[in-house]
From TrEMBL:
Keyword Transcription found: yes
Domain HTH araC/xylS-type: 229-327
Name of this protein: AraC family transcriptional regulator
Keywords for this protein: DNA-binding, Transcription, Transcription regulation
Length: 333
């Protein structure tokens, strides 16, 4: 049997828990534990704010039953979040599963929809939160060398709510265990956790940049990159009635295979994956403007079939476009 909750009910239960949160470290008022609502699980979340601008959330709890969270609305997250899952299995709104020993980055827009937490194993997890501008400061002049997916998330691209899943390396696992089992208090604890949080980010970057180098073994020429950007501009100019890949390649003077491969290298997605993300984000903004009906928005972003538009929007954002429009009207935005 499963426990089924709306996202609003879930938030209400946690609001009550955090009101009764207790301080863990007598020398650090920013280190607090909130007991997991007893109706759902046994255990806690521990929040620690560090002086370097990084916030940690440490998870240790076991669900009584599988937990299904329904009807979530998309919302702004306010920060980037590195999620390192050491033990448990859960399902994203898009149907993909995260298992133990995997990690990912959550972006600035948290999608709505249905999620599933599986009660089989205890949840042990370390989350690292930081503002995009802080991450850019940490990356410094090397920001442009980062994987394009990560660059887009840092720059606030809401079409990427989550990064691709990555495998946690043994070196990462060791540092995560050290964070979970930090033996210190007060200033010593702050210094220790600050250094460990930066270390885990460094290990993460080393892993993804190593993968990036292997993917970019075939280097594009500058002229190719210019043509690929030109192809992107043409694609967006004709987003309602886009050219085929072959037509687009001819317009910019490339063969279609080079354009297909190069577009993914430059933008981190396929030609028509990029177009789909553009259409969906434009549709969301048109709905939020509240000047058009769902049918009008569907036509405006190039969908002849309203049912196809509904399916694409729900898959992207975890809710129907009509629900999103109604929610914004209630909020008055």
């Amino acid at each position: 049997m499963s426990i089924i909750l709306s996202s609003a009910s879930w938030r209400e239960l946690w609001d009550e828990s955090w009101q009764n949160a207790r301080n863990v470290d007598p020398l650090d008022s920013s280190d607090v534990i909130g007991e997991y609502p007893t109706q759902i699980a046994k255990g806690y979340k521990r929040n620690i704010s560090l002086r370097n601008g990084i916030d940690l959330t440490l998870h240790r709890y076991t669900f009584h039953e599988d937990v299904i969270t329904l009807d979530g609305q998309a919302c702004e997250a306010g920060c980037l979040e590195w999620v390192f899952n050491l033990s448990s299995t859960f399902k994203f709104w898009d149907g993909s599963y995260v298992t133990d020993g995997q990690h990912y980055v959550a972006g600035m827009l948290m999608p709505g929809g249905e999620s599933l937490d599986i009660a089989r194993d205890p949840r042990i997890e370390v989350d690292i939160h930081l503002k995009p501008e802080l991450f850019r400061t940490l990356a410094g002049e090397h920001f442009h060398l980062l994987p394009l997916e990560l660059q887009r998330m840092v720059e606030g691209d809401e079409s990427l709510p989550f990064s691709s899943l990555q495998t946690t390396t043994p070196a990462m696992h060791l540092v995560l265990e050290q964070i979970l089992n930090c033996p210190y208090q007060g200033l010593t604890k702050q210094l220790y956790l600050e250094s460990k949080s930066v270390e885990i980010l460094a290990l993460y970057l080393d892993s993804v940049m190593t993968q990036q180098k292997s993917k970019l073994a075939v280097k594009l020429q500058l002229d190719d990159i210019d043509r690929i950007h030109q192809a992107k501009d043409i694609l967006l100019q004709h987003a309602e009635h886009p050219p085929s890949l072959l037509e687009l390649a001819r317009k910019v003077g490339m063969n279609d295979c080079t354009l297909k491969r190069g577009f993914r290298q430059v933008f981190g997605t396929t030609v028509f994956g990029y177009l789909h993300d553009y259409r969906m984000n434009r549709a969301r903004k048109l709905l939020e403007a509240q000047t058009m009906s769902v049918q009008e928005v569907a036509r405006a972003v190039g969908y002849a079939s309203v049912s196809s538009f509904y399916a694409a929007f729900r898959k992207k954002f975890g809710m129907n476009p009509g629900t999103h429009l109604a929610a914004n009207r209630r909020k008055g935005i």
